[in-house]
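User: Okay, second chain of the day. Same drill as before: sequence in, structure tokens out.
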Amino acid sequence: QAQLVESGGGLVQAGGSLRLSCAASGSIFRINSMGWYRQGPGIQRELVATITSGGTTNYGDFVKGRFTISRDNAGNTVFLQMSSLKPDDTAVYYCKGLFEMVPGRQYQYWGQGTQVTVSS
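Assistant: Same drill. Structure tokens below.
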């Protein structure tokens, strides 16, 4: 089993910044990718950003250069630096990991979510 623990959410004023962290642990053979998704009130969960084991990043269209995903050297912690935050960014942010627990078999894991609230 694998676990994802998120931190860093909170309340921030519009235009401000927040940094989210997500640490993976457990009996993981290989981390293929990790990333962030978000779900606002009445909205489907949507992609924020992902980063693969090779360092390839992908962002949701709404990010428009405001957010940056990165990871630590060990590759088991990812960070989401969010800047120029808007009230529309208010959502629960979920960390997602795609892990091989045994070689060749990939599993999807989700964190518990962290609330980000942007006030106007």
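Residues 32 and 53 are 5 Å apart (CA to CA).

User: Thanks, on to the next one.
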